[in-house]
Amino acid sequence: MRRLFPVTDQTSRPADSAGPAAQAGDREWSLDELAEAYAYPPIGPDGHWLRANMVSTLDGAAQHDGRSQPISGETDMRIFGTLRALADVVVAGAETVRQEGYRPARAREAFAARRAAAGQGPAPAIAVVTSGMDLDFSLPLFSSPLVPTLVVTGAGAPAERVAEAERAGVEVVVAGDGAAVDPARAVRELAVRGLRRQLTEGGPRLLGQFVAAGVLDELCLTVSPMLTAGAAQRIAGGPSVAVPHRFAPALVLEEAGFLFTSYRRI
């Protein structure tokens, strides 16, 4: 990895102050430095903070051949791991879990002391959002996680599939009156369980639902220096909002042509 440095941070540092660039120089940033750069804001016992982590090409594609890995890179995956290590829970849609081959989050020694000091367990839980419960509960994500996996669904989800999930030891979180999940209620239900530092990795349909519901607090977006054309999804799909939501830049990093940005809701 070559140099990784902040280009700007308009919300937390004066323009003429020395930031991590002065510390990092041409060396690789440590995981501790990345963790400090992406630290969650203080969250009270009754609050929550939902951030999203997504990657997009220059022409707006969130995937290539149905997966995000081809448009990602080494540093993107390093930040991906850091964001996971800071979270209480990783929220993902069922389709993303299937396409990306999700496995249980693992404990990472580099973040163990930081998580312990924050009162967190050894690894984040994974919460899978689904209305149809079309999931294979024999997969390692459900059968052998370090931290029990949750399934977030609506009260109208197929009863036999809910029962199968519970027999497999999966906690089913009801966050909707019908089969569909209410995004705002999902955020609240996770927070009630002590999962207040929330990270969603999409996919685009789930992120679009969070955006439309007005519950997204932060977007961590990697801009990949690639062009793909085609008809790939954007990072957020679904119906548009009546008035665009305005976010402010909190952090911009650059390495090897990739931009790693964080925007927070105003």
UniProtKB/TrEMBL annotation:
Protein name: Pyrimidine reductase family protein
Pathway involvement of the protein, from the record: Cofactor biosynthesis; riboflavin biosynthesis
PANTHER family for the chain: 2,5-DIAMINO-6-RIBOSYLAMINO-4(3H)-PYRIMIDINONE 5'-PHOSPHATE REDUCTASE, DIHYDROFOLATE REDUCTASE FAMILY PROTEIN (AFU_ORTHOLOGUE AFUA_8G06820)
Claim: Hydrolase is one of the keywords in the record: no
Domain Bacterial bifunctional deaminase-reductase C-terminal residues, every copy: 49-241
InterPro entries per record: DHFR-like_dom_sf, RibDG_C, Riboflavin_Biosynth_HTPR
Region of interest: Disordered: 1-25
Domain of life: Bacteria
Gene3D superfamilies hit by this protein: Dihydrofolate Reductase, subunit A (3.40.430.10)
Keywords: NADP, Oxidoreductase
Signal peptide: none
